[in-house]
């Protein structure tokens, strides 16, 4: 098995299991503020210690994994649901005005980063998890649209598409029965890579105050709250930073491994070696 796929899958599984476990059990209440436990060192029922508010760091990391996955799933879902149909339509009508319009609007959206969209949406609707999910999702739509369009262009010149057209199948039926199944592997890889980007974006937005609001734990806000104690108590920044790094590395390796596993051309190259 591909080593990247195995390592990435293991890291992702670790994050997912931690998030699922947090629904049923955490060592302590992650939102409970207790001045008596302020900056408590690891040990005595607190494996990673407590933060400046006396909250258990390990419990916050567990619930923070849940928040991160929730934002990533919704954001990537928004991007896939919006971007994939647009990319398929543009790929099936490459010389039409509709394709040109879709790709130019796609380029326009691509020029707005998630942070800027979050600031704009936050100014109108207020900062929060929902705002972050929408901003990250909309900012990721162009990536899915481009991947779907490029893959659709390759599929549309194949013999079975020509046969389907000769049989009188309409564009919608061709898209559903022939195009989507053959570009699904590329979309899965793109979803994995986009998930890693969404994790970083959510952490950055929470760090800047435009993401998940207190008291809900978030890895990005844990970093923000620890910055003033970076030199005196560096462990407060170490654990959320390490969690973000592990999650991002896991999804990136998983995406690369899935690409190698699902792409027959890459499999043939490895076999020849």
From TrEMBL:
Pfam families: BPD_transp_1. It is found in: Cell membrane. The keyword Membrane applies. It is a multi-pass membrane protein. Residues 65-255 form the ABC transmembrane type-1 domain. The chain crosses the membrane at residues 69-93, 105-124, 130-148, 187-210, 236-258. Keywords: Cell membrane, Membrane, Transmembrane, Transmembrane helix, Transport. Signal peptide: none annotated. Belongs to the binding-protein-dependent transport system permease family. This is ABC transporter permease. It comes from Nonomuraea insulae.
């Amino acid at each position: 098995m591909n080593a990247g796929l195995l390592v990435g899958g293991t890291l992702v599984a670790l994050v997912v299991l931690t998030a699922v476990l947090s629904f049923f059990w955490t060592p302590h209440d992650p939102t409970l503020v207790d001045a008596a436990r302020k900056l408590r060192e690891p040990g005595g029922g607190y494996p990673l210690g407590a933060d400046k508010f006396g909250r258990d760091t390990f419990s916050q990391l567990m619930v923070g994994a849940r928040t991160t996955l929730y934002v990533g799933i919704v954001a990537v879902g928004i991007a896939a649901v919006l971007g994939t149909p647009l990319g398929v339509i543009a790929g099936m009508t490459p010389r039409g005005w509709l394709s040109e319009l879709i790709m130019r609007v796609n380029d326009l959206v691509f020029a707005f980063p998630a942070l800027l969209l979050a600031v704009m949406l936050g100014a109108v609707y207020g900062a929060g998890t929902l705002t972050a999910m929408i901003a990250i999702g909309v900012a990721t739509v162009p990536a899915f649209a481009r991947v779907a369009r490029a893959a659709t262009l390759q599929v549309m010149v194949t013999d079975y598409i020509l046969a389907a057209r000769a049989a009188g199948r309409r564009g919608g039926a061709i898209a559903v029965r022939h195009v989507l199944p053959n570009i699904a592997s590329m979309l899965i890889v793109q979803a994995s890579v986009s998930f890693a980007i969404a994790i970083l974006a959510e952490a950055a937005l929470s760090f800047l105050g435009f993401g998940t609001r207190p008291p809900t734990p978030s890895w990005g806000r844990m970093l923000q709250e620890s910055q003033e104690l970076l030199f005196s108590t560096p462990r407060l920044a170490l654990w959320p930073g390490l969690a973000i790094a592990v999650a991002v590395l896991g999804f990136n390796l998983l995406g690369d491994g899935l690409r190698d596993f699902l792409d027959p051309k890459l499999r043939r190259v490895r076999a020849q070696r």
